[in-house]
Amino acid sequence: MRRLCLRHLASSIALAAAFGFAPAAPAQGYPARPIRLIIDFPVGGPSDVLARTFAQKLTDALGQQVVSDNRPGASGALAYGLAAKAPADGYTLVWLSTPFPLNAALRGKLPYDTFADFTPISLVATYDNVLIVHAGVPAKSVQEFISYAKSKPGGLTYASSGSGSVQHLAMESFRRLAGFQAVHVPYAGSAPALLDLVAARVDGSITLPPAAMPHVKAGRLRVLAAGGAKRLSALPDIPTLTESGYPVIADGWGGIAGPRGVPTRIVQRIDGEIARAVKMRDVRDRIEAFGGEPVHAGPGEFAKFIRTQYDRWGPVIKQAGVKLGD
Question: Which residue range is the domain that position 153 belongs to?
Fold first, then answer.
């Protein structure tokens, strides 16, 4: 009878494993020391604010300090390269954001393999950009903006946070669809680009809404369209580019990964804690303050999402001949 019971138990475990129902092994002893979270952009931007939010939540949940380590440079490639070379023991994580898959198409050589050298863990947020102009531009709609652009000798000027940024690529996609000329003026980040837009040194931009909204309310800037798949809750009367007849999605995102080969039990532990954090009201408020939407996609979905982003923007980069440093 004992032998029969043991045989039945073994069969049950095997059957459960075959269908993916076997219980996950406990993360024995993890974490036993502080964890490093490498952040791909400087202090104060969306990557930094959101990464630090989740670092604190993981600290609370795991009982070990998650230390934020900002390593900006080369559109995030410096941070990603450091993370790729770290031991795959769960004690080094990295914040991935919009430029991560774009770098693979923009740069001829990277110190890592975008699709082989990382363990995606959790996508946590997406956030939409907006098409915006300074108050002196005589356009209050997307169609009026296009007409204005076509009427300007040499085309209008537009700012971006840098060559190869999603803001640059989105405007390039929009420009090509709408058939107007425009001169790209790249900046070292969104802040200086916005300053020159407010000063009317450039005509327009596609950018994140939070920093722009005070200027919109003051009448210095005007939002013409939202760049996401749906209207922004903060701007319900503003149509999307797609609604306006130009199917361009200008969105950003953020998530957490590790080096290639992080043990599955550790990935599951971290992903589970992040999934719980995404549902917390204070976390959702922080993401929504950036015009973002809290989401959760686990390891498999996150990996597919990264590939989809590369497949979407890679052809745009190639067709436009975009190169970093333009």
Answer: 130-226
Q: Answer yes or no: is 231 within a domain.
A: no
Instruction: Please give the pLDDT value at position 23.
Output: 36
Same domain, 122 and 260: yes
Give residue-wise pLDDT tens across range 207-223.
Answer: 888 778 889 999 999 99
Q: Which residues are within 8 A (CB) of 172 and not within 5 positions of it... i.e. 6 or more apart? A: 184, 316, 320, 322
Mean pLDDT of the chain: 87
For the entire predicted model, the pTM comes to 0.80
Alpha-carbon distances, residue 4 vs 8, 9, 10, 158, 304 (angstroms): 6, 9, 10, 75, 44
In terms of phi and psi (left: phi > 0; alpha: psi -120 to 50; beta: otherwise), the region of 113 is beta
Contact 76, 104 (CB under 8 A): no
- Contact in structure between 159 and 173 (CB atoms under 8 Å): no
DSSP letter at 179 equals T
Task: Please write the tens of the pLDDT for every residue from 262-280.
Answer: 999 999 999 999 999 999 9
Q: Phi, psi at residue 233, to the nearest 5°? A: -65, -30
Q: How far apart are CA 289 and CA 291, in angstroms?
A: 5
Report the chain's C-alpha Rg in angstroms.
Answer: 22
Total count of domains within the chain: 2
For position 123, which CATH number holds? Answer: 3.40.190.150
User: 223 phi and psi, to 5 degrees?
Assistant: -90, 130
**CATH code (residue 201):** 3.40.190.10
Residues 222 and 179 in one domain: yes
54 within 8 A of 257, measured Cβ to Cβ:
no
Rounded (10°) CA dihedral 311, 315, 316, 318: 130
Residue 313 lies in a domain: yes
| Distance between CA atoms of residues 294 and 308, nearest Å | 19
| Whole-number Cα distances in Å, 3 to 6, 7, 8, 97, 222 | 5, 6, 9, 54, 77
Query: pLDDT tens digit string along 165-185?
Result: 888 999 999 999 999 999 999
